[in-house]
Each structure stands twice: as structure tokens, then as C-alpha cells.
Amino acid sequence: MSKDRKLIFQIASVYIGTVVGAGFASGQEMVQFFTVYGVSGMYGLVLTGLIFSLIGWAVLDRVYKYQIKDYQEMIRPMLGNTVTIVMEGIVALFLMISFCAMLAGTGALLNQRFQIPSYAGTLGMAFICFFTFLYDVQGMVVINVILVPVLFLGGILLALYILIFRDITVFAGIGESFRLIRYHWFSSSLLYIGYNSITAIVVLTTLQPYLAHRKIAKKGGIYGGMGLGILGLSLGLVTMIYRGKIEFFEIPLLEIVINYSPWIHWIYFFVILAAMYTTAVSTGYGFANRMSTILSLNPYVSVVLTVATGLLTAQIGFSNIVQKIYPLFGYIGLFEVLVILLYFAKDKRQEMGSKTTTRTLKKARK
Fold first, then answer.
1. What CA–CA distance (Å, rounded) separates 121 from 98?
2. Other CB atoms within 10 A of residue 155 CB
3. Which domains does the chain have, with CATH numbers?
4. Cβ-based neighbours of 11, under 8 Å, separated by 6 or more
5. Contact, 339 vs 79, CB < 8 A?
6. Distance CA 288, CA 292 (A)
7. 3-class DSSP state for residue 228?
8. Could you give the CA distance from residue 357 to residue 353 in angstroms, rounded to a whole number?
9. How far apart are CA 15 and CA 5, in angstroms?
10. Would you say 306 and 95 are in contact if contact means Cβ atoms under 8 Å apart?
11. End-to-end CA distance of the chain
12. Is 59 within 8 Å of 74 (Cβ atoms)?
């Protein structure tokens, strides 16, 4: 693998690993935001893949162009000092909530699958994250590069297996999932993009050391978004087919794979655990890093406080966080995404104008 391809792969892996957390791989987000709309929800997943690709490209392009090193440097020129301070507070809160969701998701997974007390799984994941945080951004990148390919391939293969060997009687009930409810797939997709972008943007702004040149920024962001779209569509189709049987479970996909061979259970178990871990590391590291900067804390103190706070807040419960808290941040995330995309479009328009002027001058000289 060439150096450029390796860097693109690392960036795309971090992007995918940040977004694909417990809510995504467990099927909980698929159920709440997409499968309730039947086939229309699948259109929403295609839309999210495209927009995630555009967001990744826009953020990383700006990080490269202006040599941005953290989230504050990204948004301050766009929003000004006052709004930036407010946004930093909101983003920090959401990073913590996302970290808590991953801890709670681990507890729910172990409880639903092995009847292990939820607090034991939550505590175990918290300790693993704590030791990963001590290695700073390098630890986050290494973990994502190792686990995201396993997560991605495992999720795709799992979805294909279930779709091929599905229970025909369950599949026959798919017509029920075509009914519409009071929300719309398009607005639901935008909310999903909005709150996931909050975390993704924070993490992507730390990747400047991996952007050797502009093409790496573009391809890393686009490939990461494409990977999210493909994986989301695969898992979305599965949860749509089994919608009637999984709506009220903390870990919907676990209830699906329980009907298949034991080796499928273990593949899925590792996939979702990897998803929880990669996002817990990304969001927890992002929160600890922000707290260390904003409050001028020692990095190790910030890590300890992050893990301790996460353990306490995780008691809210996994599905409650995904269903009731995440959407509230979707609107804020959409505002942030819109601002970034507008500035991205402005930069591209200026660059095109500059190139046109250069070509005109060259022709005039001839």
C-alpha cells in the first residue's frame, strides 16, 4: 500500500469509526431513524451516505487549506467568538452524551446476550477506553485502523447472510413496514446526519497531521462517507425486514441473529463491540481533549474526569439516549453542517474564479 493510500485509509477509518457506534451497529439508530419509514427509509440511508461524503470532504479540505489543528480553529472564523463559545459547550456536552451511550450500549449488549449485569459491561468498556485515551490521538487512529475494516466487512457479510437465508415468514410481513408514520424519512435522515456530524467534525479537525496533500483530504472524506452509506444501507435493509420483531429491544440486530447459527452470533457480537469501542474512543477522546483545552486541565486529569462522568451518566440507558436525546442535537448539528458547506462552496467558487483569471491573463500575454 502506497503512503497516500495508507493515509486515505486511516482517515476514512477514523471517520467511519466515529459515526458507526453502538446505535448504528446495534440497529437501534436504523430502527429509530430509517426503518420506520419502510422503503423510503432506504432512500434516507442513500442520502446520508452522499451527504456524509460531502461533509467529510468539506471539513478535511478546510483543515488542509488553513492548517487547522482543532475544532475551535475550524468554527471561530465562521461563527465569531460568541457563537463559537456556545457551540463548543454544546459540542462538548454531545461528545460526553455519545461516550455515555457507548458505555451504556456495551452494558445492554452483554446483558441481552449473556445476562451479565449491565453495570459490569459499562465498567469494562470504561476501563478499556481509559487506557486507550492515554495514547492520545495516535491511539485513536490505531484503534480505528485495526477495528474499522473488521467492523465494515463483518457488518456487510452479516447483512448479506441474513438477507439470503432470511425466514420467509418474517419477510412476508415486510408490507407492514411500508406504512408511514407522522414524521418524514427526509427530515429524519437530516436529523441523523446532524447529530452524527457534531462528533465527526470534532474528530476530523484533529487529523491535520495525516493530510499530506489536498487529494488525501478529498478522498479520505469521500471514501469515509461512502463506507458509512454502504454499511448503513446493508443494516437498514435487515432491520426493515424484521421490523415487527425488533422494535422494542435495546439491541435490535441481536434479536435477529439469535435465530441463526452460533458462529453468526459471535461475528455480530464482535462487530458491535468493535463499533462501540471505536466510537467510545473517538467521542471520549474528543471530550477529554476539549475539557483539557477549555479548562486548562492536565490531560490525565481530564481523562479521569471524562471516564468517571461517563460511568455515572450511562445509567440513563442506551435506547433512551438514542431515541430521546440524540435528535435534540440533530438541529444544532444541521446548523453547523450548513455553515461549513456554505464556506466550502465559497472557497471553491473563489478558487474557480482565481483559476479563470489566471487562464485569462495567460491568454492575454500570448
1. 16
2. 26
3. 3-348 (1.20.1740.10)
4. 60, 207, 210, 211, 216, 217, 220, 221, 224
5. yes
6. 6
7. helix
8. 6
9. 15
10. no
11. 44
12. yes
Residue 128, number of CB atoms within 10 A of its CB:
15
Round to whole Å and give the CA distance between 102 and 123: 11
Do 145 and 13 touch, CB atoms closer than 8 A? yes
The dihedral built from the CA positions of residue 284, 217, 149 and 325, taken in this order, carries a sign that is: positive
CA atoms within 13 A on the CB side of 205: 21
Cell of 143: 484503534
Decide: 15 and 282 in contact? Cβ < 8 Å.
no
> Among 245, 241, 235, 252, which residue's Cα sits nearest to residue 168?
241
Q: What is the pLDDT of residues 23-61, one digit of tens each?
A: 666 677 788 788 888 888 889 999 999 999 999 999 999
The residue type at 34: F
Angle (CA) 22 270 229, round 5°: 50
Arithmetic mean of pLDDT, 223-252: 81
How far apart CA 232 and CA 226 sit, in angstroms, is: 10
The predicted model scores a pTM of 0.77
3-state secondary structure of 211: coil
Encoded amino acid at 17, one letter:
G
Look up residue 258 and give its three cell numbers: 439469535
